[in-house]
Target: NADPH oxidase 4
Amino acid sequence: FQFFWLSLNVWFFGKTFLLYNQGQQYYYLHQMLGLGLCVSRASASVLNLNCCLVLLPMCRVLLAFLRGSQKVASKKTRRLLDKSKTFHVTCGVTICIFSVLHVAAHLVNALNFSVNYNEEFVTLNAANYRGEDPRKLLFATVPGLTGVIMVLVLFLMCTASTYAIRVSNYDIFWYTHNLFFVFYMLLMLHVSGGVLKYQTNLEEHPPGCFNPNKTLRQNLTVLKAFEDLFPDNTTQPSPEDVPVPEPFVQNSFMRACSEEPKFQSHFPETWFWISGPLCLYCVERLYRYIRSNKPVTITSVISHPSNVLEVRMMKDDFEARPGQYVILHCPRVSALESHPFTLTMCPTDTKATFGVHLKVVGDWTERFRDLLLLHSNQDTEILPIFQQRRYPKLYVDGPFGSPFEESLNYEVSLCVAGGIGVTPFASVLNTLLDGWKCYKLRRLYFIWVCRDIESFRWFADLLCMLHNKLWQENRPDYINIQLYLSQTDGIQKIIGEKYQALNSRLLIGRPRWKLLFDDIAKCNRRKTIGVFCCGPNKISKILHKLSNSSNSYGTRFEYNKESFS
Model:
């Protein structure tokens, strides 16, 4: 997908390059600037397109609406929405690449404006005189100064978006990425300068034409100078007596023009490109702010093994589908920072509680855990449950869509989780525990790979309850649970008598993915199986490759993925 989009932008760049290279309205400007004009305008067109589209994948409410509406009935179309993050990153990389081209071209243009200053076309020149310092065009004009600041902002956003910085210090990524608003404001000012101009009177003045009136004046000037030098050898010609050379009047290769060329600045097209998406994004952010301005009620906080915290809460009129996620914002942890977490429990008709599991791996989650557990450990035996703890204010934005909403829309689904990547499937399992007959899903393969035996205890109770429920309903084949412990010093078990059903499904080592896919394909001949993965990229790449490979059973695998890395 990334290669296709970059190729499309290169094609768009080439078409725009030819337009400015061959367009007659840019003849005189091209004579002055050369290829710098074509490169700068072509790269600007590509930047307009990507600056327009880079905001759309961040319109989370719009994507969630499209995913949940009946207007997008095709699974393939809904799966394209799952590529929103990839598309956002691809547009960002494209902006960085073509910004380098755009800046380099304008540096050449600034030099050419100074060196190739033309006194005949004063309005076409960006420089004020020949030999003017090009740095004045860069730092003393609105387009130049805003361009320099935009380069600095884009450099900060680009470097802070790298994987190393996002993992080591997410705050830097968060705050620098919000500079996008400054970038767009500068972009609107940047295009208002009107430095590059085009010719408007092509009919009256074809490019490269001959102007008889201008030549007449030049001839009169020459004759006057000749008279001053040789007064005795000249006569007094009148303007009517000065002949106009015939080739300049009628020539198949050169046309006569009736007036001087007129130039006009382009209307800033960038406004057309970015105003719509920017307004849509701002309206959505306002809607999300209004929707999430009321704090939720935290009902319980549970500390799980391996630094995992479970938070259960309630909120009026909150509705969510299995597999969706929310964005948590705690002002006491950070005034501006917020983070997405997948719902592990969705509200139903019988209970209004919803919850998330979060792994403590960074500064934000550490401070959030300390605030919650500090209040949870207080002596609260006398007070009622809703008065005994004063948790910090917590705001919830969402819910938003994810690929895992489709897991219940297949007849057969394969769900693969790595470590804390089990959270999207927890809400699916909780939903099946409430009732599975109303969904299309008739068989679920659940694979969970962990390094630590204690990690399985996060949802061991849930898995056991679902297993027992399906046995009581005579559907033990509805769910196939396989737990893999990838690192161990010996045979281990999930401690507890009630976990015997899981201990029999606990395997040591890593899954043999090829054999697993072959076995599933054999048991589900000529069916379409949804493959859902939330875990490390290494597992994701293996599953993606196996899903795209063919098999002899006529079974088709459709791959879906969410990465928490």
